[in-house]
């Protein structure tokens, strides 16, 4: 998994409804038209070069917005190479447009022996903010792919859109940790039993 300095901490970044309008959006094509068909959800294979590059690109865009939101630019995916991304032992699910554009993704670690899944990454391209993609991806993961498995997730404590999303999906706060000075991570757990 990803290390924050020397302390290993798994991280997640989610953007969904409620993103502050004051958060700057990275330059890029205009937002998706309201009438655009909703992206379809599908598994992603990062051994495919184009898919890996798309995940890397969306991660850079989405995490740049979060870095501004939480005032911390040390988010590992912002500095992760394509090779480092591909080396992550994660399963991937994406929201892909009709044109084949990756709009959002979630990455998680499978439990050994049926344990708790660790949702390591949730990211939405800023052009697709407020389209409900993080909710759709997480709901699909938690109800269709892993309906009986407990789950862990964390986010920057000041990332209020992500905090609200996790609470809305039934995650309960565990604690807030400070893995490096100035970065507070809120950790959550979804318990199924």
Major β-sheet profile: 7 strands, mixed
Percent range for helical residues?
25-40%
* CATH fold name: Aminopeptidase
Rg from C-alpha positions? 15 Å
The number of distinct helices, counting runs of at least 4 residues, comes to: 5
* CATH homology superfamily: Gcn5-related N-acetyltransferase (GNAT)
Order of helices and strands: EEEHHHEEEHEHEE
What does this structure look like?
The protein has 193 residues and is an alpha+beta fold. It has one domain (9-17, 38-190): Aminopeptidase (3-Layer(aba) Sandwich). The protein has helices at 49-70, 76-79, 82-86, 133-145, 160-168; strands at 3-4, 7-8, 40-43, 91-96, 102-109, 117-124, 151-156, 172-180, 183-190. The strands form two sheets. It has a seven-stranded mixed beta sheet with strand order 3-4-5-6-7-9-8. β8 and β9 (183-190) form a beta hairpin. The chain is globular and about 40 Å long.
Care to give the gist of this entry?
The protein has a single domain, classed as Gcn5-related N-acetyltransferase (GNAT) (Aminopeptidase, 3-Layer(aba) Sandwich), CATH 3.40.630.30. Helices cover 27% and strands 27% of the residues. A hairpin with a 7-residue loop joins strand 5 and strand 6.
């Amino acid at each position: 998994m990803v290390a924050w300095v020397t302390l290993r901490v798994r991280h997640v970044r989610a953007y969904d409804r409620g993103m502050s309008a004051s958060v700057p959006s990275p330059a890029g094509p205009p937002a998706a038209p309201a009438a655009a068909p909703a992206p379809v959800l599908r598994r992603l294979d990062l051994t495919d070069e184009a898919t890996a590059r798309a995940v890397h690109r969306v991660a850079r865009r989405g995490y740049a917005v979060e870095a501004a939101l939480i005032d911390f630019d040390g988010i590992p995916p912002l500095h992760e190479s394509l090779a480092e991304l591909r080396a992550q032992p994660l399963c991937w699910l994406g929201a892909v447009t009709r044109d084949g554009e990756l709009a959002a993704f979630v990455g998680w670690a499978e439990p050994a022996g049926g344990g708790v899944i660790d949702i390591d990454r949730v990211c939405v391209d800023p052009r697709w903010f407020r389209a409900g993609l993080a909710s759709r991806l997480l709901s699909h993961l938690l109800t269709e792919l892993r309906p009986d498995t407990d789950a862990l997730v964390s986010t920057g404590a000041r990332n209020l859109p992500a905090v609200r999303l996790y609470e809305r999906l039934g995650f309960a706060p565990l604690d807030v940790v400070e893995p490096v000075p100035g970065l507070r991570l809120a950790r959550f757990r979804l318990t199924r039993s």
